[in-house]
Design a protein that fits this description.
Or membrane protein, flat, signal, membrane, transmembrane, transmembrane helix
């Protein structure tokens, strides 16, 4: 009985493995074929050869909030993992690397606190800890 179950499981695994390849090959986009799910009618195709509307260009000097935050965190200054997590931390780390490092430490502390809270809650609900 176990051999039959193993054979069925193996055949199922092979069928799933090889059918995924066939589906992936068949799903290549074909925009010209009306039978394809990716078909785009001629009237809906955007003409990129026309004039460009200058009002759609981003204005010089106008930046969004994320760009302003990035500028404040030295977004153009490169660094690497050894400078952040190495034996000796570089004192001239860019702001984004310091934020990355601090958020990792904060996440680890949150994980420990969450584990302690979950263990205490389990102990209270199961009666291991009594008040």
């Amino acid at each position: 009985m176990r051999i039959r179950n193993a054979a069925v499981a193996g055949a199922t695994a092979l069928a799933v493995a090889f059918s995924g390849v066939a589906v992936a090959q068949e799903a290549t986009p074909n925009y010209k074929n009306p039978e394809s799910e990716f078909y785009i009618p001629e009237e809906n195709i955007i003409n990129n050869d026309g004039e460009f509307d200058e009002s759609l260009k981003p204005k010089e000097g106008a930046s969004n909030l994320s760009s302003k935050i990035g500028d404040g965190l030295d977004k153009e200054v490169p660094t690497n993992g050894n400078n952040i997590f190495g034996d000796e931390q570089d004192p001239n780390l860019p702001g984004w690397a310091k934020l990355f490092y601090a958020s990792g430490i904060l996440g680890a502390i949150g994980t420990v606190i969450g584990t302690i809270i979950a263990a205490v809650n389990y102990g209270l609900s199961e009666g291991f800890i009594k008040f």
